[in-house]
Amino acid sequence: MVILNLAGLFCVGFSVGILMAISGNADAASNVDQFMWFNILVLFSWTFIAFFAFKFSVTKFITKNK
Q1: What's the pTM value of the predicted model, to 2 decimals?
Q2: How confident is the model at residue 17 (pLDDT cuts 50, 70, 90)?
């Protein structure tokens, strides 16, 4: 479950970095963690990612599918 959370957060950060590079704000990417919108985005996306990582882990490892 931890690996799924880290992979999801990596994908969020990677996509934000790609969007910032495309929009021409590549120099602002070094201090993006100080922006309020980025922290709120990570907070909400982490909740979404953690829910589905937990659901996947429970389905895969705890409940027995026939």
Answers
A1: 0.76
A2: confident
